[in-house]
Amino acid sequence: MRSDPFERFAQKVIFVGSCWIWTGHFLANHYSLFYVRPGLHMTGHRFSYELFVGPIDTGKQFDHLCRIRQCVNPNHLEQVTAQENVLRSATSKPCIHGYRAISHCEICRKPPSIRKRSIKRPQKPKFMTEKEYKKSAPYQEYARKWAREYRERKQTFS
Question: What does pTM read for this prediction?
């Protein structure tokens, strides 16, 4: 027999500062996924809000006041309209591609798995071994650019 949903929920949360960080399953958009009962799945923050605060208003979304999607602390959630949520998120994160917000950038809005790299790897000449190629100037330049782009993205999406 399955245990109480509250007990299972509590087992999947760790406390970091004032945030309650979800350690269970996640959706592709980095929001928590909680199995409530057969046939009912919810995001962890919605379950937490209904459990500790009360019902969610129809047509409302949650704004994570702490800006951490994995946080399920109901005190860090505020019910807002979809338009208000978009406006708040647009002002919170600048884009590394020159846009004022990630929500305005076509590259940043795509999931990382389908986002194309802006830096292309140079093709290895047929006469070089892989070891020689990785020591070559074109590859070294590519590796430096890629590492710089990776660090910038990591800082932006953290």
Answer: 0.56
Same-domain check for residues 9 and 81: yes
* Percent over 90 (pLDDT), the chain: 9
If asked whether residues 75 and 13 sit together in one domain, one would say yes
How far, in Å, CA of 139 to CA of 137, rounded? 5
CB contact at 8 A, 9 and 3: no
CA–CA distance, 25 with 4 (Å, rounded to integer): 18
For the chain, how are helix, strand and coil distributed in percent, rounded to 5? 40, 20, 40
- Whether 104 maps to a domain, the answer reads no
Same domain, 30 and 82: yes
- The per-residue pLDDT for 133 is 78
Segments in 41-136 forming alpha helices (H): 44-52, 82-92, 106-109, 130-135
Q: What are phi and psi of 82, to 5 degrees?
A: -60, -40
AA letter at 84 = E
Task: Locate 94 and state its tokens.
Answer: 């600048």
Residues 68 and 65: their CA atoms lie apart, in Å, by: 8
Give the pair of three-digit tokens for residue 115.
């986002």
96 touches 156 (CB < 8 A): yes
In-domain check, residue 77: yes
pLDDT at 85 over 60: yes
